[in-house]
Design a protein that fits this description.
It is an enzyme of class 2 (transferase). The chain has 420 residues and is α+β, with helices and mostly antiparallel strands. The protein has helices at residues 8-12, 24-37, 71-74, 97-100, 137-212, 218-245, 257-267, 269-274, 291-307, 368-378; strands at 41-47, 51-58, 64-66, 82-84, 108-115, 121-129, 253-256, 278-281, 286-289, 316-324, 327-333, 383-387, 393-400.
Length: 420
């Protein structure tokens, strides 16, 4: 690639060596170049648009000069290594100020290109002597091999600098996220307070009115509907406030998932019994999680499995687990109505409703899965929805297993659960 097509300043800037004291590793490589060539001077140069930057050297202090005066600029487009035994007899260098005595009086010159991983020339590793001399093929090859070491050292500096920038950016993002969570919590708390007071008053008036209007009349039905609406609004406010509180400090501890599932089964027993739901729980691991938050995830997924049932069959809910790389994958499988493929991701958005909102079996605020995703993400896992083999839904989530030793409660290999 020709020099005119390269922004050379942008090309060399990421290596973070310009304007800094010489790096010890680069200075050592320059000294080794002088040893290989048995020369008094060696320099590592990076070539900018109009300036040559000597970033490390031996026998000569690093510095800056115009590219127009640079000896290395002359050979930047040469196809290979350059070795000049007497610069005065080479027309490329005879009038150069580093040869004529204006800036130096170099007679011997040898240079090897420095390249980035894409093969673009960054500059040169060059050696000088004020005496004419020659290099045998072994020393020339040694300078070529050493130049590749300079390439590696520069690339390591570039990647290290990029990593430092990425870490700083991540820290800034985390700080901003913490500020955002605090603001969200404060806002939700204020809104919750502002809404609950009038809602409580409305609910109280409606309850009083319920006793005043005759039963089995249109008026009583209107009051009942209004009370139901206020209850739903109160639940929505509670859900939104809980959603805003997530993302804080997790209280991780070893938890047997089977125990959590049994607690959830007990809590949901009336709802499960009302729809004739059965549960099949396979072996589940012990993991380090926040038990209260993970219980909320399991309660939401199991509740959904019972809620969105198929009208022609009783709900059957299966829970099982399997290893997936360095994590556990937990699945809640149902035989219900399923979630359309193109709406599975939408289901995790706050207030999203992917089923018919007029279907009485699909009641809910649309907060549950959004809350579950925030909890699982805070634990370092992922969560998603898939189709089950019988047309229902597989709600799955992963939990990292950093100790590689999470045990199954029954001590057996995980088994798959089929729902029929």
């Amino acid at each position: 690639m020709g020099l005119g097509r390269i922004d050379r300043d942008a090309l060399i800037a990421p290596y973070d060596v310009i304007g800094h004291p010489p790096a010890p590793d680069l200075s050592a490589l320059a000294e080794l170049a002088a040893e290989i060539a048995v020369a008094p001077t060696a320099v590592i140069n990076l070539m900018g648009e109009t300036t040559q930057h000597s970033v490390a050297g031996y026998g000569r202090d690093p510095g800056v000069c115009d590219r127009a005066d640079s000896m290395c600029n002359v050979v930047l487009d040469e196809p290979g290594q350059v070795v000049v035994e007497d610069t005065r007899s080479d027309p490329r260098f005879a009038d150069n100020p580093f040869v004529t005595g204006e800036r130096a009086a170099f007679r011997f010159y040898a240079a090897t290109h420095l390249r980035n991983p894409q093969g673009l020339v960054l500059g040169t590793l060059c050696v000088f002597d004020e005496e004419t001399r020659s290099l045998d093929h072994r020393r020339i090859r040694g300078l070529g091999l050493l130049a590749r070491q300079v390439d590696d050292a520069l690339e390591l500096r570039r990647r290290t600098s990029k990593l430092v920038d990425a870490v700083a950016e991540l820290a800034e993002v985390r700080a901003e996220l913490a500020r955002s969570n605090e603001a969200l919590h404060a806002f939700a708390g204020q809104v919750s307070h502002d809404l609950r007071n009038p809602l409580t008053a409305i609910n109280g008036f409606l309850e009083e009115l319920q006793y005043e209007v005759p039963h089995d009349t249109p008026s009583s039905e209107y009051v009942a509907r209004a009370l139901t609406s206020t209850h739903r609004m109160s639940e929505l406010i509670t859900d939104l406030l809980g959603f805003s509180k997530l993302g804080g400090q997790l209280r991780r501890e070893p938890v047997a998932l089977r125990n959590l599932v049994e607690e959830v089964r007990h809590d949901l027993a009336p709802a499960l019994s009302a729809v004739g739901a059965r549960m099949d729980v396979g072996p589940l691991p012990t993991v380090r999680v926040d038990p209260a938050q993970l219980r909320a995830v399991l309660q939401n997924l199991i509740s959904n499995a019972a809620k969105y049932r198929h009208p022609e069959r009783s709900p059957l809910i299966a829970l099982h687990s399997c290893r997936q790389d360095h994590a556990w994958r937990i699945e809640v499988v149902d035989n219900g109505i399923g979630v359309p493929r193109d709406r599975r991701e939408e289901a995790f958005s706050p207030l999203a409703r992917v089923h018919d909102p007029h279907d009485s079996s699909a009641e809910g605020a649309g907060i549950g899965l959004a809350t579950a995703r925030r909890i699982i993400t805070a634990h370092g896992g992922q969560i998603g929805l898939e189709a089950s083999p019988t047309g229902g839904t597989v709600a799955w989530f992963t939990l990292p297993d950093p100790l590689e030793g999470g045990s199954h409660g029954a001590g057996h290999r995980p088994r798959s659960a089929r729902v029929s």
